[in-house]
Amino acid sequence: MATSPPQNPVESHYASRSLVDVVLAALDAAGLPPRLAAADLAPLDQFHARGLEATRELAALAGIDARSRVLDVGCGIGGPSRYLAESLGCKVVGIDLTAEYCRLAEALTARAGLAGTVEFRTADALDLPFGDGEFDRVWTQHVAMNIADRSRLYRELARVLKPGGKLALYDAVAIPGAEPLFPVPWARDSSTSFLLDAEATRAVLEKSGFAIRTWRDATPEAKKWFAALRPPALPPKLGLHLLLGPDFRTMAGNFGRNVIEGRVGLLMAVCQKT
Ligand SMILES: C[S@@+](CC[C@H](N)C(=O)[O-])C[C@H]1O[C@@H](n2cnc3c(N)ncnc32)[C@H](O)[C@@H]1O
Questions:
Q1: Residue 148 Cα to chain centre, angstroms
Q2: Per-chain mean pLDDT for the chain
Q3: CB atoms inside a 10 Å sphere around CB 21
Q4: Which domains are assigned to the chain?
Q5: How far away, in angstroms, is 125 Cα from ligand 1 center?
Q6: Which of 38, 202, 224, 225 has its CA at a distance of 20 to 30 angstroms from the CA of residue 218?
Q7: 3-class secondary structure, 164
Q8: Are 137 and 62 spatial neighbours (Cβ–Cβ below 8 Å)?
Q9: For the segment 175-184, what is each residue's pLDDT rounded down to a tens digit?
Q10: Taking the chain, what is the end-to-end CA distance rounded to the nearest angstrom?
């Protein structure tokens, strides 16, 4: 399928080639059933530290139920969106800057039998194509680190939430005085990495119309998880190398070192629109 060229360096980092045929062929080679469940795709589509386990934890904190209309901002190839729809029965809209990820997200969602429940649109988190107050929950995992203008990001997320609606977030954060090693899974170098430390993140959220309801330093669990990872000698049949290419091994290794060495932290939070 012909694809339009990436528009900016963040999009070029995440998808420099057509991915739909490559990934669908990898699913067949891995012997996955015709109808996919969230757990089948987790090695490939949960694009954040601690994978599906972290998504389950954030979902438990977020208070989502079958009546919730959820917006997944920076949805990647849609793993967390599909997990929420499959396990909680809610309707989810995923948006992502990377057009190729949205195409792949649609193809995987059709294979998961969730096409009527989860939909995807290519869009920038800083300029969401929705009216005010359309969503009960906004969900975002490992996206803000690519976004310099946090004030605009969080104001935009607050705008599309209903009054009293909640933002659930899981992000990498800077550690004051420490420098991350590059490349990492979200950026090849510092030109597209905009980590904020946890306290600065809290201050921008509060100024952008949110009250903090849950605030959890998720670094200790991530340290344990990275320390226990044993990368296989050969790439697995399904994994994030299918999206990011052979450099993914180095990127993931650096993410682990950054967390273990105290250069990067992890934050999980739920904030309510005031
Ligand atoms: C590390 S991936 C995380 C994907 C997904 N949230 C997950 O956890 O599986 C980061 C995603 O953020 C998207 N992204 C980065 N900047 C964005 C922006 N300004 N607007 C929308 N999406 C953005 C990227 O295209 C990429 O798909």
A1: 16
A2: 95
A3: 11
A4: 9-273 (3.40.50.150)
A5: 9
A6: 38
A7: strand
A8: yes
A9: 999 999 999 9
A10: 45
